[in-house]
């Protein structure tokens, strides 16, 4: 399964695991893959604590940090500090949306009065909030890759990361976005198909991956969206990718912070139970369909706001679901891809990597058998 990117990054397998849980980052990198910590929900101080913990537990293995600076978002042209921007954006949130969100929660018996501490917050998805996260990450030498979602990182940020001797990756959902990343000097392009969990475009992986590979060659491409087995990794490499960038699988591992209720919901879900919805973040993201996502779709109801305003509304639901995971399953934010239909149980992270390697060998072995049979 080794590809050139394994040598570039000093890893055994080209398996990249996006996760919000530091334990999963460590477990993946120690198992020979490359763990990437999603920083969007962390303040710079919290991120520093997480990365110190990773450094202490990961041995000599490398890891990455993922930030979110979208190409477009409310307030992107301002040069306000994160605090000033938060205040300005808070004032832009219509009361109608807040009342509607509160009604969805109270109709489901979710206590909101004492769980709204995180409401109206500005998550790390602006340049103002992501830049300090990058500064923290660069203080940690084992963090050798900074990835950006939803856009091309700003040129001065790319230069700064390169000057510090680290690599830059960026996610894309189209060849034209991939072109912009490559032209800006991004080292690794992540082509993410529409079946992926979290923010995603509309084009499916098997169509998108080879288009992006062709567009940016010789820049290495990682395939994302719909990978939850070694067979799917074999397909990604066959289509020209140098590795697999995965996310959904890691909510179903023992080391993840996901609750038993969430695990049960994922294990029960089929590939048709996810939806691309703007109802939590303001941009289309794939998640489990539930009463919250349906409510924002109904014709007469308020429509989701843009990023980052919608999270200032949905943040109260996310805070409530963290506090009351059992009561809030029908309104919770559960980002997950269509690959959820393959998940039946919670596994150990190292067992997932071992299984994927084995399945990859079986898949490639099968192709060899087919070739041999055809040439006899
Ligand atoms: C729970 C969850 C949260 C995610 N959050 C982010 C994020 O904050 N930043 C990001 O770059 N990608 C995020 N993603 C997308 C992943 O990085 C990855 O591209 C995607 O999960 C790959 O497709 P898959 O879900 O089919 O494995 C998230 C995915 C999931 C499942």
Summarize this, please?
The protein has helices at 4-9, 22-30, 44-57, 82-92, 95-107, 127-138, 155-163, 175-184, 205-216, 230-238, 260-268, 291-295, 309-323, 349-375; strands at 15-19, 34-38, 63-68, 143-149, 167-172, 188-192, 198-199, 221-224, 243-246, 274-277, 285-288.
Characterize the structure shown:
It comes from Mycobacterium deserti. InterPro entries: Aldolase_TIM (IPR013785), NMO (IPR004136). This is Nitronate monooxygenase family protein. It is a single chain. This protein is globular. Helix 3 (44-57) runs parallel beside helix 6 and helix 8 (175-184) packs parallel to helix 9. The strands form two sheets. Strands 1-2-3-4-5-6-8-9 form an eight-stranded parallel beta barrel, surrounded by six helices. It has a three-stranded antiparallel sheet with strand order 7-11-10, with no helix packed on it. It has helices spanning 4-9, 22-30, 44-57, 82-92, 95-107, 127-138, 155-163, 175-184, 205-216, 230-238, 260-268, 291-295, 309-323, 349-375, and strands spanning 15-19, 34-38, 63-68, 143-149, 167-172, 188-192, 198-199, 221-224, 243-246, 274-277, 285-288. It has 376 residues and is of the alpha/beta class. The mean pLDDT is 93. The chain binds flavin mononucleotide. Flavin mononucleotide (FMN) binds at residues 18, 38, 40, 66, 68, 149, 171, 192, 195-198, 224-227, 245-248, 251, 335-337, 339.
List the helices and strands and how they pair.
Elements: H1 4-9, E1 15-19, H2 22-30, E2 34-38, H3 44-57, E3 63-68, H4 82-92, H5 95-107, H6 127-138, E4 143-149, H7 155-163, E5 167-172, H8 175-184, E6 188-192, E7 198-199, H9 205-216, E8 221-224, H10 230-238, E9 243-246, H11 260-268, E10 274-277, E11 285-288, H12 291-295, H13 309-323, H14 349-375
Parallel strand pairs: 1-2, 1-9, 2-3, 3-4, 4-5, 5-6, 6-8, 8-9
Antiparallel strand pairs: 7-11, 10-11
Helix pairs in contact: 2-3, 3-6, 5-13, 8-9, 10-14
The structure holds flavin mononucleotide.
């Amino acid at each position: 399964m080794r590809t050139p990117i394994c040598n570039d990054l000093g890893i055994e397998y080209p398996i990249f695991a996006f996760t919000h849980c530091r334990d999963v980052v460590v477990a993946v990198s120690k198992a020979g893959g490359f763990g990437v910590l999603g920083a969007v929900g962390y303040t710079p101080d919290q991120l520093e604590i997480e990365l110190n913990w990773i450094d202490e537990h990961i041995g000599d293995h490398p890891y990455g940090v993922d930030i979110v600076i979208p190409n477009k978002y409310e307030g992107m042209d301002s040069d306000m500090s994160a605090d000033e921007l938060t205040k300005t954006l808070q004032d832009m949130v219509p009361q109608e949306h807040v009342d509607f969100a509160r009604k969805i929660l109270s109709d489901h018996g979710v206590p909101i009065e004492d769980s709204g501490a995180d409401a109206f917050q500005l998550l790390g998805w602006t340049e103002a909030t992501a830049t300090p996260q990058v500064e923290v990450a660069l203080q940690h030498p084992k963090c050798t890759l900074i990835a950006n979602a939803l856009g091309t990182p700003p040129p001065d940020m790319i230069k700064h990361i390169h000057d510090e001797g680290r690599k830059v990756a960026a996610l894309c959902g189209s060849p034209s976005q991939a072109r912009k990343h490559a032209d800006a000097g991004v080292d690794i392009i992540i082509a993410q198909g529409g079946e992926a969990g979290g923010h995603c475009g509309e084009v499916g992986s098997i169509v998108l991956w080879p288009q992006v590979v062709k567009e940016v060659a010789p820049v290495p491409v990682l395939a994302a969206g719909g990978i939850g087995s070694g067979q799917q990794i074999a397909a990604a490499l066959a289509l020209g990718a140098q590795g697999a960038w995965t996310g959904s699988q890691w909510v179903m591992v023992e080391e993840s912070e996901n609750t038993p209720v969430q695990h049960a919901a994922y294990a029960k879900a089929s590939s048709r139970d996810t939806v691309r919805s703007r109802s939590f973040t303001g941009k289309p993201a794939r998640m489990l369909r539930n009463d919250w996502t349906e409510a924002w779709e109904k014709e007469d109801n308020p429509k989701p706001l843009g990023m980052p305003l919608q999270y200032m509304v949905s943040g109260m639901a996310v805070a409530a679901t963290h506090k009351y995971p059992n009561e809030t399953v029908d309104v919770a934010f559960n980002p997950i891809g269509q690959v959820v239909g393959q998940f039946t149980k919670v596994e150990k992270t190292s067992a997932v990597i071992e299984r994927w390697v084995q399945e990859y060998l079986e898949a490639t072995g099968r192709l060899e058998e087919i070739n041999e049979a055809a040439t006899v």
